[in-house]
């Protein structure tokens, strides 16, 4: 095993990790603002993957081009879900919220099974067979595209929260929901927008992930779990933490898969999780409660 | 300006307000005094639209506002400096102030109102980029008042503004309320500091067990034997 092989695996892990990070970002935003854990996160990503799949096979639109449309559609789905359903369940005991989101997850998974069947599907782009070589590195073209797009979406999201009035208002709601009502913010609507942003993130991530993995309905629970690992690693509610956690999980999957055995990759991700829970339970970039 | 009649408020089975009726005229300072748990904060929350009344009516400038959402009520011009200040600790001081002016009515005049806040509270100007949670208690109270002013209110409600503040800061704060009044602001003042608030107020109401038991001018209440005994320890 030579150094260039090791570097190739590392860079592939890093690039995939950015897409994971974008997916987890959605989970983290929703939890950070509303303290709602979106147990249907992976299912929403599968919906986005199928949407991107259909747009490619029926209309010939490549996933990166389909991303704004799919993310927009997922925003609307998330907005409506929060506005008309989840807002009524804020402040109730956690197990009721858990059951609600789990029900949504089960409904989505089974709807996908009914429509698309259990078989795995994938798409082949011309770019799927191309690669960039940078010095000794050989990088898959689609992986590079996916990673840079994920990074771009994450940067947009950061700018939105930092510089726009709506973004600041959402941070204000997260900071102090009572204070938000005191100044006359429409908290219910901001919550709906937040959930929409969270699901739009996972929608964008789904489009990009379709470039890298095959889609089937039962992918959902794996990715919900992966999302949790990532946000807990990085720190719940921390945007930078979600990206960092995504990169770490991407790296550990790639390295354990290449150096030991592909079937062991989840074991190492969970190992990392246990390590962080033992040594720094608030997550790497999380604040102490 | 504000007329409340027969207001009932329940938290589950517990009754917080029972048949409260009161009115506030324009440019008036009205004090609401009463013991802990008498329903003062519940009254403020009901007016602000943060708690839905079980019965009764709240009229503001001739318009029925009973049961409207808090953002609608803020937009009509009723704002509050809430109990415990309720600032946004991780947002910067400037962002806190800007959040005070998100309601449509106030957004256009944001720049001018901000300048006015800096005149009133010069200390805030030097800390604009600092996160609000790092301010002292007194500074946070000033920020809460500044944020409230950013909303261009016509009626300001102060809920226990002196709570937990050093005496020097408390007197500075009462001076600000007096100045606002002199400029023509209408104020509802809920205070545990009964003598100061009744001295400052044009009129006052005494709230006990969720109901109004006494009302009158500030001076009359200060001289009332029952008030003196129950709240001033005289």
Task: Tell me about this structure.
The complex is a heterodimer of chains A (289) and B (234). With 289 residues, chain A is an all-alpha fold. Chain A has helices at 3-34, 41-59, 63-84, 94-116, 141-163, 165-175, 177-182, 187-209, 219-234, 239-259, 265-279, and strands at 131-134, 137-140. In chain A, strand 1 (131-134) and strand 2 form a beta hairpin. The longest helix of chain A is centred in the N-terminal third of the chain and has 32 residues, at 3-34. The mean pLDDT of chain A is 92. Chain B folds into 2 domains: 1-77 and 154-162 and 171-234, P-loop containing nucleotide triphosphate hydrolases (Rossmann fold, 3-Layer(aba) Sandwich), CATH 3.40.50; 84-150, no CATH class. Chain B is 39% helix and 26% strand. Chain B has helices spanning 40-48, 70-76, 93-99, 104-107, 110-120, 122-125, 137-150, 167-182, 194-200, 218-223, 225-231, and strands at 2-11, 14-24, 29-33, 55-60, 63-64, 78-81, 155-159, 186-190, 203-208, 211-217. Chain B starts with a strand and ends with a helix. The model of chain B has no long low-confidence stretch (mean pLDDT 90). The A-B interface holds A 165, 168-169, 171-172, 175-176, 178-187 and B 48, 50, 69-71, 73-75, 79-80, 82, 86-91, 95, 98-100, 102-103, 147-148, 151.
């Amino acid at each position: 095993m030579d150094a260039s092989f090791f570097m190739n695996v590392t860079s592939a892990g890093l690039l995939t990790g950015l897409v994971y990070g974008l997916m987890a970002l959605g989970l983290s935003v929703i939890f950070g603002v509303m303290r709602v854990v979106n147990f249907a996160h992976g299912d929403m990503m599968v919906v986005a993957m199928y949407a991107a799949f259909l747009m490619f096979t029926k209309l010939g639109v490549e996933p990166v081009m389909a991303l704004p449309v799919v993310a927009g559609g997922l925003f609307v789905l998330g907005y409506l879900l929060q506005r008309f359903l989840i807002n009524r369940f804020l402040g109730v005991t956690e197990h009721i919220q858990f059951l609600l989101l789990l029900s949504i997850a089960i409904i989505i998974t089974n709807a996908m099974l009914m429509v698309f069947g259990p078989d795995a599907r994938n798409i082949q782009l011309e770019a799927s067979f191309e690669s960039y070589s940078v010095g000794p590195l050989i990088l898959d073209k689609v992986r590079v595209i996916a990673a840079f797009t994920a990074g771009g979406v994450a940067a947009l999201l950061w700018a939105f929260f930092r510089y726009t009035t709506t973004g600041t208002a959402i941070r204000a709601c997260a900071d102090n929901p009572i204070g938000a009502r005191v100044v006359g913010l429409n908290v219910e609507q901001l919550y709906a927008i937040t959930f929409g942003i969270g699901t739009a993130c996972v929608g964008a991530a789904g489009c990009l992930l379709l470039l890298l993995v095959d889609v089937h309905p039962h992918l959902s629970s794996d990715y919900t779990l992966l999302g949790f690992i990532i946000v807990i690693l990085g720190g719940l509610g921390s945007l930078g933490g979600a990206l960092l956690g995504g990169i770490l999980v991407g790296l550990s999957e790639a390295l354990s898969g290449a150096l030991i055995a592909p079937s062991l990759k989840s074991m190492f991700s969970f190992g990392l999780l246990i390590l962080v829970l033992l040594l720094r339970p608030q997550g790497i970039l999380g604040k102490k409660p | 300006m504000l007329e409340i009649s027969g207001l009932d408020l329940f938290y589950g089975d517990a009754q917080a307000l029972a048949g409260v009726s009161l009115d506030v005229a324009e440019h008036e300072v009205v004090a609401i005094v009463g013991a802990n748990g008498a329903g003062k904060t519940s009254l403020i929350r009901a007016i602000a639209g943060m708690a839905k009344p079980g019965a009764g009516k709240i009229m503001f400038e001739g318009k029925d506002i009973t049961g409207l959402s808090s953002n609608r009520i803020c937009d009509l011009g009723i704002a509050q400096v809430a109990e415990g200040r309720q600032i946004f600790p991780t947002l910067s001081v400037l962002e806190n102030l800007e959040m005070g002016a998100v309601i449509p009515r106030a957004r256009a005049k944001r720049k001018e109102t901000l300048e006015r806040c800096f005149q009133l509270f010069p200390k805030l100007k030097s800390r604009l980029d600092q996160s609000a949670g790092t301010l002292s208690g007194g500074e946070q109270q000033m920020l809460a008042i500044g944020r409230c002013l950013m909303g261009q209110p016509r009626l300001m409600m102060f809920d226990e503004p002196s709570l937990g503040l050093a005496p020097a800061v408390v007197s500075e704060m009462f001076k600000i309320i007096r100045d606002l009044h002199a400029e023509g602001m209408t104020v509802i003042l809920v205070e545990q500091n009964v003598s100061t608030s009744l001295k400052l107020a044009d009129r006052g109401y005494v709230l006990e067990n969720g109901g109004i038991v006494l009302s009158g001018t500030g001076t009359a209440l200060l001289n009332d034997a029952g008030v003196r005994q129950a709240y001033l320890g005289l």
